[in-house]
Amino acid sequence: MRALLQRVLEAKVVVDDATAGEIQHGILVFLGIGKGDTLEKGQKLIDKILKYRFFDDEQGKMGWNVSQAGGGLLLVSQFTLMAQTQKGLRPDFGPAMPPSEAKALYEQLVGYAKSQFENVQTGIFGADMKVHLVNDGPVTFNLEVE
């Protein structure tokens, strides 16, 4: 399971000209789910994201997590994060979990995130999403859990 985190001043997901999810200051998370990933792994990753300190504290250092910074969390499913890209000139999506299984796990992870943090928004799994964001910094991190 992989998560690409971007610290944002604002972000939103638009599907069919309607806003599906939107946050102001916070974390935009692109979430890739692979074959063999589990709810336990996902919960570990969500916990890490919520505790990850990459917002400026009073001293201007990356010392605050999203809660301490008063931010929001926007979760967007993105199977392309699971692509193998080491060989050739075309991504191999074989490592990604099949969509029907991934959707169920993604929905469980969204539920878990909402139980742990009050300001959680999402995209729509499998939809053609337009993601708008203002990256803050830019600050971007790639997180994985075993």
The overall number of domains is 1
Rounded to the nearest angstrom, the distance between the terminal CA atoms is: 8 Å
As a whole number of angstroms, the C-alpha radius of gyration is 15 Å
CATH class: Alpha Beta
Using the 3D structure, state the CATH architecture: 3-Layer(bba) Sandwich
Total count of strands: 8
The CATH homologous superfamily is named: D-tyrosyl-tRNA(Tyr) deacylase
Family: Belongs to the DTD family.
Enzyme class: hydrolase
Protein name: D-aminoacyl-tRNA deacylase
Main location: cytoplasm
Any chance you could write out the topology, listing elements then pairs?
Layout: E1 2-15, E2 18-23, E3 26-32, H1 39-51, E4 55-56, E5 62-64, E6 72-77, H2 99-116, E7 120-122, E8 130-144
Describe the structure.
This protein has about 150 residues and is of the alpha/beta class. It has a single domain, classed as D-tyrosyl-tRNA(Tyr) deacylase (D-tyrosyl-trna(Tyr) Deacylase, Chain: A), CATH 3.50.80. Helix content is about 20%, strand content about 40%. It contains two helices and eight strands. The chain has helices spanning about 40-50, 100-115, and strands at about 1-15, 20-25, 25-30, 55, 60-65, 70-75, 120, 130-145. The strands form two sheets. Strands 1, 2, 3, 6, 7 and 8 form a six-stranded mixed β-sheet that branches. Strands 4-5 form a two-stranded antiparallel ribbon. α1 packs across α2 (about 100-115). The longest helix is centred in the C-terminal third of the chain and has 18 residues, at about 100-115. The radius of gyration is 15 Å and the shape is globular. The termini are close together. The model has no long low-confidence stretch (mean pLDDT about 95).
